[in-house]
Amino acid sequence: MSEPILGPQDSHIVRQGGFYRDTRRPETRLWAFMADPLCAIVPFCLTMLCLFIPALFELWLLIAIPFTLLVVWRLPLLPMRMPVAARRRDPNFRDQRTRRPGKASGDWLMFVDRITRQPGFPSTGDMRTHCIVAGTTGSGKTRTLLCKQANVVAQGSGFTQVDGKGSNSNWKDVLSLARMHGREAEVRVVNFLTSSGSRETHTWNPFAHANADGIKNLLITLFIASDAGNGKGGSQQFFVDRGMDLIATLSELLAWIRDARHLPINLPTLRRLTSDFDALRQLVLDPDSEEGHPRLEYWSHAEQRFIDEDLRALPPKDGRSRPALPEPIRLRILNYMRETGGYTPGKAVSAQEKVREQHGYVVGGFGATFTQLSGTLGHIFNVDVGDIDMHDVLFNRRILTVILPVLENDKKVNTRLGRFIINAIRYGLAPGVGGQLSGDIDEVINNRFSNAPTVYCLDFDEIGMYASEGAQSILSQARDLNFSTTLAFQEVSSLQDALGKSAADALLSNPRLHFIMSLNDNTATKQWVESAAPRLPVSVNTNYQASNVTGVYLDQGRADVREMPLYTWHDVTSQQPGQCIVTFYGRRIYAEVPNIQLANKGYLRVPANLTLPRNSEQGPPVVTTIPAARTQAAAKLLGRADVLTENDRAGPQGQMRVFCDAYREALSLDTDPDAELRIVYRELAAAFRPNPAGRKQNGSKANSPPASQSPDVPKRDTRTSEADTGNKAGTHPLDTGEGSTSGGVTPDASPSPNEAADHDLDENDPLLAPLLRFGVRSQTLPPSTTVNPTLVDPNPHVLEIVTKIEVFKEESDRSSRFEV
Fold first, then answer.
1. How far is CA 787 from CA 553, 764, 774, in A?
2. Residue 676's Cα: distance from chain center in Å?
3. Of 114, 137, 558, 660, which has the most beta carbons under 10 Å away?
4. Which DSSP letter does residue 781 get?
5. Based on the domain organization, do 331 and 221 belong to the same domain?
6. For 650-684, how does the pLDDT look when each residue is reduced to its tens digit (9 = 90+)?
7. Residue 739 sits in which domain range?
8. What is the rounded CA–CA span in Å between residue 286 and residue 295?
9. Start-to-end Cα distance in the chain
10. From the DSSP assignment, how many helices (H) and strands (E) are in the chain?
11. Region Disordered: what ranges (predicted)?
12. Domain final residue pick, 90, 106, 122
């Protein structure tokens, strides 16, 4: 015999919502019923009743007219905002000044109400208040993020997605979404996955565009652990402080050599400056000493070697001299060397082992990070100027996907990479704040490059794996910069482990729009969900009473008012994939996110890199001399003259030049179109028709028989034009002499319209048929001349002209606007 079950059975569970009571007034219920599509059943039933009882028609008409007006004129109530396309007032959100229904502002489609099946439209202002998407594995977090990304790409903006799961399936959705809207060329990807061996990614040098403060914080994120030293003092804290001082000093140096010396900043150069103490010593050399000027060794990716740069004094600027190295930077480097082991200038480095030893302790922890970035991830970071500029991505609305390797790396390594990405985004946003305080409001405030009618999305998926303190500052400032941030996680405990409980609570309290999907964590996550649920007074039934006759428990007809949460933990855990509970402005909506089905076939490709490969042997061209033509062009521009004149433009060559010269000659005469076409024909015939028998030809063609004497083609008469007689004897018509132009047309011997009529068409000419079809009127041929002569000239040039005229005729027939 089995042990009895002491827990409640299904028959003991109160029906879902069975203890809640609807205490609304009748007119309120009627008003809500008319908003339901089921209200159409009332006029349908009355209409059917009138078919059987016609006498009720007048009564039904009195009821139907006000009922229809109420249904049509009442303002609909949607779960969130009224869509902009509705062009109606929104009764849910009233104007704060007039307290009347506000304008419709919903322009995002994010979900559908599970109960009323009405769509949920947040506005752009709502999305600026940031979002939280909390859900366990398989609950639909990625589906919700994809829905948000589809909205923002359709509006012409972009997004940056940091994927903490390390899967390429999200990359497929992002690329398909961009290709759907014709923005595939704007997609960037930073792929930290290396186990497969493909290493397809775009390159990125985060130090190429950041200022000194940004470089310092990025380096601290990479090399200094967040819990290093823990503020407990001792030798460990001393070396941590020394390391931060070195990073701050090198950041100013790197920014200066990039901006003033135009030298690249890359990881090999940075490693040489940090690990090699002699490289620091060469930067602070006295120019008057025996060792000479300060020197800097930097790595050139083009030449694949270190280059020793002599930091001599720069040319004066604005009447002020510029030293080889700014004195504040030189003093900071020198002070670090003195404070780390007691460096003595002028003394040999080999005699200062204490200094080298202390410096080794300071930078000893940097090696592992340098090895990972330059070796394992060298295909991303080993570049002078990368494909990705975070400032360009954020403010030019591009699409960026970052894939973190969860399974390949240790959790600490992924945390450090995630912190590095978040801080890079944070410093990419910094210029958008604007530092100018004086000036016109339109220039200083209204025309900031972060202002736009749409938002840019920052989506952090699985943020609990790489959360850092910089995320809180992003959420605090991103709304003012027109950015929308989304935090997606599985449990709150991961955020608390990464940031601490107080920092995690502050981070979760910032977003206003919550998408709470299915969750299973009964500890910190349950506590956060229940504390975030809005609580309102509701009417409930407190008890039941059994009937004396049947023994069935019946409702006593009483309702008590109690303050209860708008959703329970059971509502959260029982949700299906894609279902969520949306909380917004104290409201609770049982929603379902649309399932966007993108194409799962086709070829995926990473957009081409924008920069040269790292090992490119062909660098940019080096200009050593300025061409004379460029100097002349500059002189003309300074003199406000045209750089190019008519004589500078090169005309067409070959057959096209013959046609253009003939057409220009025809247009220069004030005559009718028929005469112009005959002039063009005469010049083309003179240029391309074979020479008559007996005329000498140049080259090997002189010994060949004329084309007109071919045994397969009857002999035809050849008429000599003035253009032929004007050429030199034995010279091809194209080879004109001095003072003549191509095709035998001379500027001094332009034929008149009357002369052009003398050179009319020959009835045996193979060009006659297409010209007559084209509509040319002959002055010498009878009207009954056939337009399809049987004579065919085998000369390929003549056949080519015939073909071109035929095509031109067909095109003119198809065009209603063509006139000869």
1. 107, 11, 10
2. 55
3. 114
4. S
5. yes
6. 667 777 788 888 888 888 877 777 788 888 888 87
7. 660-814
8. 11
9. 109
10. 29, 21
11. 690-762
12. 106
